[in-house]
Amino acid sequence: MIFDFGQRLRDLRRAKKLTQAQVARRLNLSKTSISGYENNIKTPSIEVLIQISILYGVTTDYILGLEERKMIFTDGLTDRQQELLSLLLMEFRSKEQPGRR
User: If you compute the radius of gyration of the chain from its CA atoms, what whole number of angstroms results?
Assistant: First the structure.
């Protein structure tokens, strides 16, 4: 499968129900820049790539097609909430998933 950087950005934006103009405003960029990224005409700087990853809640590696995992941000959670979330994630990971052996 061939990775399409622009398509991944478009899919992430649409999943958040944002327009290109809204993303541009949030990142302090032009709509033309966002369109250029999504159409594989322009490449974002490292700083912009980081901002995009934070906006969409994914890793830069995910955006770049290097991994398929997404992130969970725990900012604003108490230490106890983070601990509970960690335990819950470990519980999910320890269970055998249907269809996987």
Answer: 16
What distance in Å separates the CA atoms of residue 22 and residue 64, rounded to the nearest whole number? 22
Tens place of pLDDT per residue across the chain (101 aa): 346 889 999 999 999 999 999 999 999 999 999 999 999 999 999 999 999 999 998 889 889 888 766 667 677 889 899 889 888 878 877 876 655 54
- Whether this model's pTM surpasses 0.90: no
- Between CA 89 and CA 95 the distance in angstroms is 10
Considering only CA atoms, which of 37, 34, 46 is closest in space to residue 4?
37
Q: What is the 3-state secondary structure (H, E, C) of the chain?
A: CCCCHHHHHHHHHHHCCCCHHHHHHHHCCCHHHHHHHHCCCCCCCHHHHHHHHHHHCECHHHHCCCCCCECCCCCCCCHHHHHHHHHHHHHHHHCCCCCCC
